[in-house]
Amino acid sequence: MDTLVRVDMDRLEAKLEPVPDGWQRLGGRALVARFCLDEIPPTCDPLGRSNKLIFCPGLLGGTNASSSHRISVGGKSPLTGTVKESNGGGTPGQKLARLGLKAIIVQGKPRQPGLWVLHVSQQGARLDPADDLALLPATPAAERLRTRYGAKVAISLIGPAGERKLFASGVLHTDKEGVPWRISARGGMGAVMASKGLKAIVYDDAGTSGVPLADKQLFAAAAQRYHKLLFASPLSGKAYPEYGTAGILGAMNDLGALPTRNFSTGRFELADRINGETLRELILERGGVGNPSHACMPGCTIRSSNVVPDHKGECLVSPLEYETLGMVGANCGIGDLDQIAAINRACNEMGVDTIDVGGALAIAMEAGVIAWGDGERCRQVVERIASGDLLGRLIGSGGVMTAKVLGVERIPAVKGQIMSAYDPRAVKGLGVTYATSPQGADHTCGTTARRQMNHHSAEGQVEASRAVQVNVTIYDNTGLCMFAAPGVGEERQVICDLLKGRYGWELTPEDLLAQARQTILDEREFNRRAGFSEAHDKLPDWFREEENPASGTVWDIPDAELQLAHRF
Questions:
Q1: How far is residue 117's CA from residue 141's CA, in Å, rounded to a whole number?
Q2: Residue 1 has pLDDT above 70, yes or no
Q3: CB 27 within 8 A of CB 57
Q4: Is-contact 399 412, C-beta < 8 A?
Q5: Full residue range of the structural domain in which residue 21 is found
Q6: Considering the chain, what is the average pLDDT of its residues?
Q7: In the chain, what percentage of residues exceed pLDDT 90?
């Protein structure tokens, strides 16, 4: 992949460029971090002309290694003001790599109002007018694009929330069935895409024959070892395929870590109605298109996704994951799977992050604007984002904005981003990640929830978070799903062999770790230039002051100790 597409929205032109020398061995999150440092003024307006947006696969994108087709969407976040790499599944990452493209970079802003679609193929890249897609929800927009460009294309697009430049908006991606509900959700990248006048990117890999391999035999052998590791793991080989991410809900509830009613406690009295076991039973009982073990991309053996059917056996939503069950469910006092799934579907169609929206809905409930547990009202509010409804726009702007407008002081956020579905007083390693991640309160930057340790104790949590933050960055850089990490464990040589088979590079596991550390340091350097310091690496004070009744703990890791998280 020695070529990238540079899209200049000022001139409404797209052209191919060579990849800069310093980017050659970077992919995914590592490339996003370096791109931001090299090309984005750190103090720029995130929705202004100077910010840029990058779409890139990981280093192993387009290969037949399981779950290797993740796509990274990045730039400066309007939600946090920091660097942001927002990771997503589906098929765009695979097709981008098969087209031999290292990245797509979008810069500038159109001089006149209007929407555009970027079409990339073996013939090059072009911009097509797309005003007819204005404010269309995700599914009808994707259907119209497939009619226009072909049934086999992959698509990245924004929903009405992105077009309205709401800060909780993400970038949606089609899965292997063409459903546009995989999302690079966090950080408001949908608003950045809208600020560039771009509604969608269409990836047409017709005529391609797969990515080239430097050593086919070595790659095949490494892929076989890698897949054996995944199948042998209790998580990637059994728990994820059977229950998906929802399988952890019961354990988090028992631990007192399941955010309930705006993080006022960590145990939900209706948890057994929305846990992984109940969800699986519902999917199997209703049948139809339902599938408790679904792959969002071709060749994924982990299959942690699902398709949730309605009472008629037709698709209600896909996927319904732990983060949504936690933040839209327990955190809002909603104990009904159908209601949570309906809200999830509305979020998908509008193109918003269910974590930040779940936080915003709970804050609106604490303010008395919505009643606790009123799932139907929540769905209506989210759907009204498309119409420009004031409350819908507020919720679509995320939890921090909602709290400020409604006068709620208890805001579970770091650097402007709502925490995901783990109370940091009960899973303290994740609290360290929330506090110190360069990207705000983001569990995907280093979750410790499945580690065997005393999660209620402060002891060892900084070290645990540091180790996981570095390890997960390896997967973000290579384009592998983070759910492969438990299977691979310390056997990182298999990733080195995959990369050698793909590119011919001689790498060691320490090289992978070194690049991961450098990625985090690059992100922190961008943030430093943007005005952030270690003083911003902390949780809200109320977590120290208010005990989580379910765990009997408070947040008690000293801020000075948190500063050791990235002392590599």
A1: 11
A2: no
A3: yes
A4: yes
A5: 3-203
A6: 97
A7: 98
d(CA 222, CA 263): 44
- Give tens-digit pLDDT for 77-122: 999 999 999 999 999 999 999 999 999 999 999 999 999 999 999 9
Nearest-10 crossing angle of helices 461-478, 428-436: 60
Rounded to whole angstroms, the Cα distance separating 427 from 254 reads 12
**Cα separation of 486 and 236, whole Å?**
7
Q: Is residue 552 part of a domain?
A: no
- Which pLDDT value is given to residue 328? 98
According to DSSP, the residues that pair with 124 across neighbouring strands are: 121
Answer yes or no: are the C-beta atoms of 167 and 194 closer than 8 Å.
no
From the list 212, 156, 146, the residue with the least C-alpha distance to 184 is 156
Rounded Cα distance between 499 and 511, Å, is 12
Ramachandran quadrant class, 398 (left: phi over 0; alpha: psi -120 to 50; beta: rest): left
Q: Is residue 154 part of a domain?
A: yes
Provide the pLDDT for residue 263.
98
Q: Which two tokens stand for residue 256?
A: 């007192």
b/e 292-315 (16+ beta carbons within 10 angstroms → b): bbbbbbebbbbbbbbbbbbeeeeb
| pLDDT tens-digit series, residues 252-311 | 999 999 999 999 999 999 999 999 999 999 999 999 999 999 999 999 999 999 999 999
Closest by CA to 162, choosing from 153, 150, 170, is 170
What's residue 488's pLDDT? 96
User: pLDDT, tens digit, for every residue of 234-267?
Assistant: 999 999 999 999 999 999 999 999 999 999 999 9
Whether residue 492 has pLDDT greater than 90: yes
Radius of gyration of the chain (CA): 22
Number of structural domains the chain divides into = 1
Please state, in angstroms and rounded to a whole number, the distance separating the CA atoms of residues 451 and 456.
Answer: 12
Neighbouring C-beta atoms of residue 406, cutoff 10 Å: 16
**Whole-angstrom distance, CA of residue 278 vs CA of residue 500:** 43
Global pTM reads: 0.97
Closest CA to 107 of 23, 33, 174, 15: 15
Query: Do 420 and 187 meet the contact criterion of CB atoms below 8 Å apart?
Result: no
Q: Kind and range of the H or E element at 280?
A: helix 276-286
Alpha-carbon torsion angle 486, 492, 495, 501, nearest 10: -150
> DSSP string covering 74-135, please?
EEE-TTTSSEEEEEE-SSHHHHHHHTTEEEEEEES--SSS--EEEEEETTEEEEEE-GGGTT
Measured CA to CA, the distance from residue 447 to residue 401 in angstroms comes to 26
Is 491 a member of any domain?
no
List all residues 6 or more positions away from 281 whose beta carbon is below 8 Å from its beta carbon: none
23 domain-assigned: yes
What Å distances lie between residue 182 and 141, 170, 338, 566, CA to CA? 14, 10, 20, 31
**Domain holding 120: CATH number?**
3.60.9.10
